[in-house]
Structures are given as structure tokens and as C-alpha cells.
Amino acid sequence: MHPVIKLFVPCALSLYLASACVPDLDSLSAEYVGPIGSAGSGNSSAGNGNGGGGEVVDSCENGAKDGLETDVDCGGTKCDVCPPRNHCKVNKDCDTGYCKNLVCTAPTCSDKVKNQDETAVDCGGSCPACDTGMMCTDNSGCTGEYCKDGVCTDHCISGAQESTETDVDCGGGSCPKCDAAQRCEEASDCLSAICSNNKCLAPTCSDQTKNQNESDVDCGGVCSATKPCPPSAHCNTPGDCGSWTCSSAGKCVADIVVDPMAIIDDFEDGDITNLPPLGGRVGNWYHFSDMSEGSIGSATPVVINRGASAKGLHETGMGYAVWGSGVGADLAHLPTGKTTYDASAYDSVTFWARAESSLTLAVVMPDIDTDPVGMKCDQANTACDHHYYKTVTVGITWQRYTVAFADLVLEPGTLPAPTRFAPEAIVSVQFRMSPGADYDLYLDDVAFLKTK
After folding, report:
1. Which of 165, 220, 284, 440 counts the highest number of beta carbons within 10 A?
2. Cα four-point dihedral sign 340, 361, 316, 350
3. What average pLDDT does range 253-276 have in this prediction?
4. What would the 3-class secondary structure string for 187-205 be?
């Protein structure tokens, strides 16, 4: 007789409402019952193994690929991970943590996956050391040999000598250069660029090495005060050069040669009340202005920082609203009075200047035709004091300016109108600022010049 299969399906049934009974599949149980008539004998085949009784087998161990498995009895969300060469869908299907082309693949140090004993993707552990910023467990796992708080950190701040450093946190190419007395292997390890007997030496202005902030070897920068750079040497600023002239190409350029007898004033004597007794010139410097109410201005000697030149003239002014103000020097102011000076041996006037903020000034040359001293212009009808001039823009760094007599133009208003500038009868040299301009001007080495 065939065995009877009893299927027990628990179901709640309402006494008042008939409804479908839905089985709980998780509670299903199967029982094999022996041949009819033998169930109560205690000798059923289910109990002695002779009736074909079966055991429920886990699907992850049934020797078949089923359910969500990606290969036989592995992968998916329920079974164990798959070994290499088994099929997979995602990395977590594989015990290698690497699913490539739907096949579990042995991990490498270039598979772009954090696996094996790596501390970060493709680095650390048995792979090459990790770069700065990546996870680590110890110093050996970092290219910089410094693991801090589980992250590879710049070894140049560790407070210990490691990696390629030649001394603590310096040298070796990857860290800042070492100071004097610190250990070095080569010149490039040192701030001074001098490594002697494996010690960095302190830089000087005579060590035949371009170091510190020198613009060229042993000149410029911090060496400028005692060793300014010669022409053709590299420069970063005019102050690097003995000529105080640095070209746009970064090379020191020779200054123009000025005849010592042509110097109107270099101000080195700190005296602006008397011009140096050179070339027959007699006079003094003075501040002039339109005398606007509330205006302030002055001309004073001052210490400057321009290479070998130690002193200059400081001219300030503010509040001049009518025609302006400035500073000037008469060239032939004799005890008997002011007269003209013969500058026909020259063709230009030259000077050094800088300002606290950029400004435009007029280089003014009163002569016999425009100054009342010449007694040619109509002073009674205010037709004097309209002079020959040229404007220049002065920047915040020292620069030489040269104004050629041929470039001077006449201010309108002089009567009778002159026909030419008269270098043979100059009265003074002036530097004039326009009305409304507040200024802070420095002058130095004012001189006549012959360029041809």
C-alpha cells in the first residue's frame, strides 16, 4: 500500500465569515507514514530507514546553482562568497573581493579595489606604500614613512628624521631645505646651498654662491647695501643694482654718466640753503605755492635709501587749489639779486625721484623770456611766469628721469610770446605739482646733462 502524506496547514477560520485559508509556507512540514495498518506498530519504515524517508537539504549545499547564487552554492545574498574562477555579479560575491568580467578573480595591487591586506585601494599591506592622505596602519605603509591617526601624513612635520630627510623634517628633496648646522648630503639640502662635511653652512655675501635672497651671486637682495650688483647681473628690483636701474629683462643696467661739475645738487651735505659751488651756480632750494588758505607744504633734506646715495630732498604739499605748488632752485641768485645762468653747454636736465603714491609733476625751466628777472615779459599784465615745461609721472620706486631741453613746451600766456627756449639764460629749475594734488615727493641727484 502506498504511503500517505499528511500535510498540516494551520489556518484560522472565522465562524461567521467563510474565507480562503492561506497557508504559512514557512511552517510547512512533511511526514512519511508507513504502510496502512502499520502506523501504530512502532515499526514504520520511516523510523528504520527502510521506508525511503528524506532529510531537508540547505540550498547553499545542494550541489546546484539555484536561487540568487552566482555559481554553485556560492555568491548572492545568502550563500558564502565564491572562490576564484567562479561566476559573480559584484565584488562582494567573491572571497577575493574582486569580480572582473563576471568572474571572481585573484586580487592584485592594481585592480582598483581595496582587498587583500591593503589599507587603502591598491596600497599598503603587501602592496606598495600609500601616498599622503590615504589610510594606513603603520609608518611602513606610507611613502613618506609617517602614519598618523591612521592616515599617511607629510613626514616633513613629524618631528623625526625619516624617509629621505637628511635631518629632522628637512633636506632630501621632499622637505624644506635645512638650516645652518643641520645635516646634509648635498648642497640642495641646504638653504645656503652649501653643504660641507655633511653640515649646512650659513650663507654670506662672499661665499661665491647665489643664496639668501641674492639676485645674483653674492650681490643684490640682502647684500645690496654692501654689494650691489654690477651691470648685466640679474636683478629683481632696482635696489639690487649699483646703478639702481633694473631692466624689464631682469638685468642691471649701467647708469648714465654725469659730469661731476654738472651736478646741481646731490643733497649729500644735508644743506638745501646753498647749492654746491659747482659750475658757477649760486642759489638755494625753496618751496613755492599759490598760498591757498589752509594749505601746507615744505621742502626739507632727508635720509633716503638709494644705494650709495644717503640723502635727498623731501617735498610735501596739500591743499593748494589755485595753480599749485612745488620746489625749485635758483641757479644764479647773487648777493645783488637773482639773474640768469648759462646752461648752453648741456641739452637736458636729469634727476632721480620717487613718491609715496604715483603722481604727475611738471619739470619747469623759467628762462629770460618767461621770468620777470629777464624784464622781457609783461609783468604788469600778468604775462610772466608761464614757463617752458614737460610733465613726467613719478612712481613709488626710485627711478631716473631725464628731460631734454628740446622736449620742453611753453605754457600759454607769456607776452610777448618767446620763439624758443633759451638754455643760455635759465633762471631756475623747478618741480611743480598741479592744483588739488596732495603729494609726498623725494628728489635726488639733480643735474644738467649733455647727451650728444
Report:
1. 220
2. negative
3. 96
4. HHHECCCCEECCEECCCCC
> Are 331 and 296 within 8 A, CB to CB?
no
Structural domains in the chain, CATH included, are 1-56 (no CATH), 260-449 (2.60.120.430)
Amino acid in position 349? V
* CA-based nearest residue to 171, from 157, 183, 154, 158: 183
Lookup: cell for 325: 605748488
What is the C-alpha to C-alpha distance for residues 348 and 339, in angstroms, rounded to an integer?
20
For residues 241 and 423, give the distance between their C-alpha atoms in angstroms, rounded to a whole number: 33
Backbone phi and psi for residue 216, each to the nearest 5 degrees, phi listed first: -150, 180
pTM here is 0.63
C-alpha 238/C-alpha 258 separation (Å) is: 19
pLDDT score, position 452? 86
| pLDDT at residue 97, rounded to an integer | 85
Exposure class string for 43-64: b at 16+ Cβ within 10 A, else e: ebbeeeeeeebeeeeeebeeee
With bands split at pLDDT 50, 70 and 90, how would you rate the model's confidence at 115?
A: confident
Task: Name residues whose C-beta falls within 8 Å of residue 64's C-beta, 6 or more positions apart in sequence.
Answer: 72, 73
| Per-residue pLDDT tens digits for 281-310 | 999 999 999 999 999 999 999 999 898 899
Report the alpha-carbon distance of residue 40 to residue 282 in Å, rounded: 149
For residues 75 and 87, is the Cβ–Cβ distance under 8 A?
A: yes
User: What grid cell was written down for 69?
Assistant: 547564487
Residues 120, 123: Cα–Cα separation, whole Å: 5
pLDDT at 408: 98
C-alpha cell at 243: 646703478
- DSSP per residue, 354-414: EESS-EEEEEEE-BTTTSGGGS-S-GGGT-----EEEEEEE-SS-EEEEEEGGG-EEPTT-
For the chain, the first-to-last Cα distance in angstroms comes to 140
Q: What is the pLDDT of residue 380?
A: 82
For residue 114, list its beta bridge partners.
none
